[in-house]
Specification:
alpha+beta; 11 strands; about 30% helix; membrane; about 325 residues; 3 helices
């Protein structure tokens, strides 16, 4: 005798097992075939966002150097990417700011001041696509790889990059400035009468020094949101000086040292052309050659002159 009730009880179980088998098969195909490609696409989108923020922050730095006004700004992006539907595992990354070269130094009889650079970089960790990172150095953004290959993003090759760094439009000609005030002085005798002799004296010099510095918070890792932050502060101090010396670090790469030296030299040549009577010596080179580039530059006054030092400090930090 056939037990129909038993057959009817088995049928739903078999159907459910078949449905589960189909679901497992579909999920297996999804995870083994589609998920890797989807995670690659998500990682590509993530790295594209990082690149966009690096380029934007580079422009922010340039504007801050040119404007020389106090303020704060930031650019945020995720350190990790590659999360997709039913696979939320993300890659990670490291964002770090480091001190770079000292560019130039200004010394007097009472103090010293200098201008320096920073560099910052994003490095991927356990990337789902390529080990592609980004770095900023000498005013431009590089694409970096795990094979220690560095490629400038904004220029076709390194020659174009060097030309851009040395160009008048680059930030390095904006790191130093010199302005001065002068007035005529009429000589008098012991009775206070004018003798007819007139002097042209420099009464005040204002030197603007812009420097990029590393912030207290300089390292972030993980796969969450990180932030590149920029804060601009301005400090002004005044001294009475008889001597100013300008020296450029000749070890800086990319032609940066040449560009900065030429900028300082041009300012001193202009200052020297005024032929002030209270200035003893201005060491500068009106017709500078390659052999002159890198030599120290000086101003010597006969009597103390008021010197204002305006320090524009751009602090770059890595934060969460």
């Amino acid at each position: 005798m056939i037990d129909y009730n038993a057959d009817e009880g088995i049928a739903p179980v078999v159907a459910m097992l078949l449905i589960l088998a189909v679901i497992v098969t579909v999920m297996s195909v999804y995870f083994n075939t589609y998920v890797p490609s989807l995670k690659e696409e998500a990682e590509i989108d993530h790295l594209s966002d990082v690149q966009k923020e690096f380029l934007s922050f580079s422009s922010d730095l340039e504007n801050a150097v040119w404007q020389k006004s106090e303020g704060r700004l930031s650019r945020s992006f995720e350190l990790g990417g590659g999360d997709v539907f039913l696979s939320s595992i993300k890659s990670g990354g490291v964002l770090e700011v480091e001190e770079d070269a000292r560019l130039f130094n200004i010394s007097s009889t009472s103090a010293n001041w200098n201008s320096s650079l920073v560099r910052f970089a994003y490095e991927p960790v356990s990337n789902f696509w390529q080990d592609q990172g980004y770095s900023w150095q000498y005013g431009y953004v590089n694409l970096t790889t795990g094979y220690n290959i560095t490629t400038p993003l904004q220029y076709t090759d390194m020659n174009d990059t060097i030309q851009a760094v040395e160009n008048d439009s680059g930030i390095f000609r904006s790191l130093f400035d010199l302005n001065y005030i002068y007035e005529p002085v009429f000589q008098t005798d012991g009775l206070g009468n004018y003798t007819g002799t007139k002097y042209r004296n420099c009464t005040e010099i204002t030197i603007t020094i812009t420097s990029l510095e590393k912030g207290v918070k300089d390292y972030v890792s993980g796969n969450g949101v990180a932030m590149l932050a920029l804060e601009t502060d301005i400090e002004t101090s005044s001294f009475n000086e008889t001597r100013l010396n300008f020296s450029v670090n000749t070890d800086v790469l990319m032609g940066v040292n040449n560009t900065i030296w030429e900028c300082i030299n041009e300012k001193l040549v202009d200052f020297n052309s005024s032929q002030f009577d209270n200035v003893e010596i201005v060491s500068c080179y009106p017709d500078a050659t390659d052999d002159d580039i890198g030599k120290d530059l000086d101003i010597l006054f006969i009597d103390p002159v008021k010197v204002n030092i305006k320090q524009v400090k751009l602090t770059v930090s890595a934060k969460v």
